[in-house]
Amino acid sequence: MTKINTHIGRRAFIRNTSLASGGLVLGFSFLNSCKPEQAKETAGMDMPNEWFEMNSYLKIGDNGIVTIYTPNPEFGQNIRTSMPMLVAEELDVDWKNVLVEQAPYHSEKYGFQFTGGSRGISARWIPLRMAGATARHMLKEAAAQTWQVPVEEIIAEAGVLQHAATKKSSGYGEMASVAATLDVPEEVQLKEVKDFKLISRSQKNVDAKSIVTGRPLFGMDIQEEGMLIAMIEHPPAFGLTLESVDGEAAKAMPGIKDVVTIKSFKDGYEKGGFDTNAFPELVAIVGNSTWEVMQAKKKLKVEWQPITAYSETIAGFGGKETINIPSGLESTTTHKSQMEALAAKPGKVVRKDGNPEVAFKNATTVLERSYSAPFLAHNNMEPLNAFAHVAGDKAKIAAPIQIPSLIIPTIASSLGIPKENIEMDLPRMGGGFGRKAYAHFVVEAALISQKVNAPIKLVYSREDDMTNGIYRPTYHATYRAAFDENNNLTALHVKAGGVPESPLFANRFPAGAIDNYMAEEWTIDSNITIGAFRAPRSNFMAGAEQAFLDEVAETMGKDAIQFRLDLLKRAKENPVGERNDYDADRYAGVLELVREKSAWKENDVTKHRGVSAYFCHNSYAAHVLDLKMENGKPVVEKVCCAIDCGVVVNPDAATNMAEGAITDGIGNAFYGELTFKDGVPQKNNFHQYQMIRMNDAPKEIDVHFVQNEIDPTGMGEPPFPPVFGAVANALYRATGQRHYEQPFITDKPPLVG
User: Fold this and answer.
1) Whether residue 362 is found in the same domain as residue 414
2) Considering the entire predicted model, what is its pTM?
3) pLDDT per residue as tens digits for the range 651-686
4) CA distance linking residue 518 with residue 224, whole number of Å
5) What range does the domain containing 371 cover?
């Protein structure tokens, strides 16, 4: 066992001051809102008469039932199942006796409640196990005191405490009242991986029944007495802002309570990294129902005016950064010409190994290719929404957001109330993918509630959601490779940029595997807002890099997988530079596994196959994708996937994430595209913006995990980036044509009609 000092997670053991009469009540907990018989039916077990809180993460009922709180918001990764599994493993309780509840926002008790960046499980790997182990130790201490025997002789297993010598035994529930009064131990022992009984064994999603039966879980499900519906009207184009509004005709419509204007930020407020908002000044309509408000929106008379160029300081994770926002109405055609122009000029050198200039000068052959990808909208299944009830200097919020702690200061500043007076619940999100990290819509809901002095639920229409910003940037990358007279690779050069950020990762593969290597970057300022999109930056760079490496391998006459393995062998045995941010051995491991499981043969004429592999979020993923052409259209038949993400907590859930990422990646590679004309998004709903359909999904996805005992790393995002390269390389095998510009299918059939 591994000993852990509990002081490193002391906040986890703060007792809940709201615990009264043995019960902890959370605002939007479906289970806690049920009548006793409803709760019994929902949970599938008898509810205890009394609960005893062990620490912030768990409480034990007098009948042995355990409630475990999930600290991080859930938006589909299954963390509401996987995180409690970590606690239950170390507590050593029978999983069938576990209830799961979503914790509210509480930074002192739960720390950084962030879901994103594929860091959920890795960040909670030790703290949640420690919470379970600590409670288990306290239960053993309680039994030892009660039975007057040494604690070392107590065995705790499957929710039962036993003392062999005296043959005494007791369920956890019988000892919980005593255990809850004991001091937290200075240190506890955690299990070794080999001793896990629950972790690495698939468990059903705890919300599955509620999801399929329509029980309230999501932000959109929230209903409160006296609650009104609010919707917003934002500028039709990026580069415009509010000038004036005449809302009299709208206010005269049935069911409409008010038309108000709001300003998201107070003058002089220093924004955080997730306060991004293209349209901080909005018109809001408030009424009795969504339909009535939508009809009233049509009656609004709003005038817009051009913005003035400005700069602002953003306080992000890496410190303060100055952002320039230009004026003007931007178009995709202009972006493309700007990117091509900068790609042809020297960029900012971020990394340089050896002497690439000389290597290219002396090269017998130079291969040069440029790749590009458009803006993408997140298009979460659940559009943006938030509940807010602001009364005086207090606010009650419930919002499907990824990072509650980073929006609390903004809400407090905008409302003019103390942060401590904001109470926030975290309903399940119907998708996030980075979009719901940018919680301006929560600020908007709070401001609207304050203005109309009533509880409101802000609802974005699909059109509002798709045209409001925070997109995946548009990117461009140029790769060059130098070869000698024997077709040996002698140098590699990558230059990448975008609007308005660069996608470059200068220290990732194949950096470290090539003597002469150079990486440059550039950016173009824009007033179109961008942000995190599933595997930020990696989602483009992986596709460009892996497609180019396939061409390099072909030029050298090498097998595509073996070529990558040869480079990784060099990076492992004799790496170039000291800043390489990948483990060459683990990288090679997923390639070797996918080669084995896919029965890879480079020259298999019976299959059109593409391979791709990538490292991001501390994990490694490799895909072999098979497709065929039917009536001139590519059809993906099978994807074989290998992933190294350390210990896999819940294999079925991890497999599900991989399958979702692969399917999503195929859809974006084939169809994903958002263009602009004079600042106006040219697509605003699914009749224009094509997402992958069921008949476009792979017929088979075969997922394999590298077995090791490494602490868990990222899982939600790593399988996504390699898909783009695998698709591009398979398309080449099928058609003989290389694809350099996403989306790969530009001749799209009508989506309706």
Assistant:
1) no
2) 0.94
3) 999 999 999 999 999 999 999 999 999 999 999 999
4) 58
5) 333-376+471-735
